[in-house]
Structure to design on (389 residues):
């Protein structure tokens, strides 16, 4: 957003001559500071002149913009409000105050955006901004009115089309939304927000076939957004195009979306394709993802408590569960230790120790010592198979 707002400062630099241009500073030097993103330096350069010429709109604009870009929105707003104290209809200052309050004070942002609409009733961007504000407040009825007006004023602007189509989908007015989306895609078939809305509408209306072309374009554009890609693979799944569903899931995984939902539908697809081993492998991964890693610590501490209560079999059961879920070989060591020391069951102890030795990679000093001892005592014994999990 800040990059876009670079354009808003131009009117502030080209101030109305009524208020005069600053004579005590070099405008080119200020521009160089902004160009090089040296906003702190720009502030320090402008403030001495501003302390002398407090009503100079150009200086106030420089200070407001530099503070805004330097992530000091409260200070920026202070300067823009001073400009509005001099000229209450100064468009750029009103725009900045509206934008600064967009996230932190929506009511104030609406107030200033409404002033923009009054001053420039023919500009679609102001109606779109108002629509965005009302949508943030979940007031879709009001958002609909303003997005509609923005689109009517400038239907060829994709941002207006996207905003209006989006709220139409919220209102379940899918036919109207689809007509807008299709019309704009005829002009720009690679517009990413439009493609995402096309998928969303198709998925919401169960017209799954309509999502496929848009989804494949997003993949070609390398736009791996989770929600539209999820809707896309669900469309493929509902159309019984299981290999395509798997392919889209793979695309998400390659782009770091290793989620339960993605793996779950891959597993369902492999089951539909009769590859039950692959399906089960993915479902086991889903189980591990579904259970918090902290669960290992909880099971471990439950086992310690059962040990303290001398309930050794219950302790082993909890160590077994922790190992089954998270494959930490130390859990097998603990079960072997209890079997050997407390239960005096050397056969059971050997099963756990052999399993531990086959998987362990100790890094801590204490574990290295224990590993070395077990390797010496149990490492050559293979008469009993490792514990089955």
């Amino acid at each position: 957003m800040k990059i876009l707002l670079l354009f808003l400062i131009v009117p502030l630099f080209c101030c109305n001559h009524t208020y005069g241009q600053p004579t005590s500073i070099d405008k080119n030097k200020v521009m160089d500071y902004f160009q090089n993103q040296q906003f702190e330096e720009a502030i320090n350069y402008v403030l001495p002149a501003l302390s002398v010429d407090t009503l100079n709109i150009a200086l106030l604009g420089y200070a407001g913009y530099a503070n805004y870009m330097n992530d000091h929105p409260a200070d920026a707003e202070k300067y823009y409000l001073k400009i509005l104290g001099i000229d209450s209809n100064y468009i750029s200052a009103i725009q900045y105050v509206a934008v600064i309050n967009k996230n932190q004070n929506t009511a104030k942002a609406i107030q200033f955006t409404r002033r923009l609409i009054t001053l420039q009733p023919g500009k679609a961007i102001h109606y779109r901004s108002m629509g965005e504000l009302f949508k943030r407040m979940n007031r879709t009825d009001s958002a609909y009115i303003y997005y509609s007006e923005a689109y009517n004023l400038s239907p060829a602007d994709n941002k207006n089309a996207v905003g209006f189509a989006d709220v139409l989908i919220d209102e379940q007015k899918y036919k109207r939304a689809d007509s807008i989306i299709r019309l704009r895609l005829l002009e720009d078939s690679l517009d990413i927000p439009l493609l995402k809305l096309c998928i969303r509408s198709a998925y919401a209306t169960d017209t799954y076939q309509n999502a496929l072309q848009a989804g494949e374009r997003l993949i070609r554009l390398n736009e791996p957004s989770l929600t539209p890609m999820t809707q896309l693979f669900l469309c493929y799944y509902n159309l019984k195009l299981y290999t395509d569903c798997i392919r889209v899931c793979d695309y998400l995984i390659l782009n770091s979306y290793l989620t339960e939902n993605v793996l779950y539908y891959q597993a369902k697809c492999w089951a539909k394709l009769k590859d039950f081993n692959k399906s089960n492998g993915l479902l086991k991964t889903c189980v591990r993802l579904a259970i918090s890693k902290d669960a290992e610590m909880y099971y471990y501490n439950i086992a310690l408590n059962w040990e303290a209560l001398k309930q050794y079999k219950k302790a082993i059961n909890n160590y077994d569960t922790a190992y089954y879920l998270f494959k930490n070989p130390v859990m097998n060591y603990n079960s072997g230790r209890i079997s050997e020391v407390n239960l005096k069951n050397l056969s059971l102890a050997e099963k756990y120790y052999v399993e531990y030795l086959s998987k362990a990679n100790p890094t801590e000093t204490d574990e290295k010592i224990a590993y070395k001892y077990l390797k010496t005592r149990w490492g050559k014994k293979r008469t009993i198979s490792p514990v089955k999990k």
